[in-house]
């Protein structure tokens, strides 16, 4: 059981941080995409 806890601590936290950062980047890319599309239409 201790092996699983250490595995989650070592691997789970970096995965969680990576998914969080990818989500933040995705929302910013969506905003940039929307801005470019609106500029192109004008």
Automatic annotation (TrEMBL):
Keywords: Membrane, Transmembrane, Transmembrane helix. The keyword Transmembrane helix applies. The keyword Membrane applies. This is YvrJ family protein. The chain crosses the membrane at residues 6-23. The lineage of its organism: Bacteria, Bacillati, Bacillota, Bacilli, Bacillales.
């Amino acid at each position: 059981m201790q092996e699983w806890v250490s595995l989650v601590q070592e691997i789970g936290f970096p995965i969680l941080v990576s998914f969080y950062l990818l989500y933040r980047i995705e929302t910013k890319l969506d905003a940039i995409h929307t801005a470019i599309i609106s500029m192109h239409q004008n």
